[in-house]
Design goal:
By secondary structure, the chain is an alpha+beta fold. It contains 10 helices and 13 strands. The strands form 3 sheets. It has an 8-stranded mixed β-sheet, with helices on both faces. Strands 9-10-11 form a 3-stranded mixed β-sheet. It has a two-stranded antiparallel ribbon with strand order 12-13.
């Protein structure tokens, strides 16, 4: 394993998510125990020679190709608890500033979101290692792959009508954007509800403020949970106290949290908004996806 990978977020905290098929997937670094599983994924890949002449047609050539990637690339794998390695992404350094990326997903699990998550993890990994630019080649007819790469920030270097197109992502602007802390984008005029208030009050706030959820605080302003519109779908809950129905296991961040970490939380936990608290767990604001997007729009 490249020694630089050992200091990255993905190495310390593997990325877990649920695929569009509802299956739990874990993206993590490639270690010795998973190398044989990775080889098995490519040997089972059908049809061979299906993208850029890869995987190689013969088993011997295929194994050598995978071993070359293991030895020369910076590798991440997607693991399915039932099927082993189901996806792979590799970074191949061209020089100290530029790397080339490859993303492959096992055919039965393509179009389930695994390729998108692998690409996002590769971008984050490249950023943390210190690369300034990522490059890739994709078949011009592979519309879905091109869409994923565009969604993740890659731009076309060429507009070929046949063969392959080249795409690249400039990480210098990305680095400045995601390294910033969220204190620059926190919404501080946050609407909250107390845990001792009737649920009817919370419903009125949700309807009048046009938000999907409300932070719940106690009498000292400490965050104790969250309530959302979904919590009130049963009529019997309207007459109860907020403390009776709130969700107490809430994801929170501090103001010194980086935008990169918040974005990963949005992606992996499928949430839209995160409460921001101080060192005494008092609510100081919230940060949402729209706040991140607005920040990107202003600086990129």
């Amino acid at each position: 394993m490249d020694h630089r990978v050992e200091q990255t977020t993905i190495h310390s905290f593997p990325h877990a998510f649920v695929s569009k098929k509802g299956e739990p997937i874990l993206i993590t670094t490639l270690d010795d125990k998973r190398c044989e599983r990775l080889i098995s994924m490519y040997l089972a890949y059908q049809p061979r020679n299906s993208f850029q002449g890869l995987p190689p047609i013969t088993d011997e050539a295929c194994v050598k190709w995978v071993q070359h990637m293991i030895g020369n690339g910076i590798n991440l794998v997607a693991l399915s608890f039932g099927e082993g390695v189901v996806g792979h992404t590799a970074l191949f350094p061209i020089n100290d500033r530029v790397c080339e990326m490859l993303v492959v997903v096992s055919p039965p699990l393509q179009n389930t979101g695994i390729g998108t998550e692998l690409t996002r993890c590769s971008v984050q990994l490249s950023h943390e290692i210190g690369f300034e630019k990522m490059r890739l080649s994709v078949d011009v007819t592979n519309v879905k792959a091109k869409h994923v790469y565009k969604k993740c920030g890659f731009e076309y270097l060429s507009q070929e009508s046949v063969g392959e197109v080249e795409m690249a992502l400039d990480l210098r602007g990305y680095r400045d954007a995601v390294s910033a802390t969220i204190d620059k984008i926190v919404k501080r005029d946050v609407i909250s509800v107390r845990d001792d208030q009737p649920c009817r009050d919370a419903v009125k706030l949700l309807l009048t403020s046009h938000v999907g959820s409300l932070p719940v605080v106690d009498g000292d302003g400490q965050l104790v949970g969250i309530v959302s519109k979904t919590d009130f779908m049963l009529p019997s809950k309207i007459g109860r106290k907020v403390s009776d129905i709130l969700t107490r296991d809430v994801v929170t961040v501090r103001e010194d949290c980086t935008i990169a970490k918040v974005v990963r939380m949005f992606q992996s936990r499928k949430i839209r908004c995160i409460p921001v608290v101080d060192d005494k767990s008092k609510l100081v604001g919230v940060v949402g996806r729209e706040d991140v997007l607005a920040y990107y729009t202003n600086i990129l």
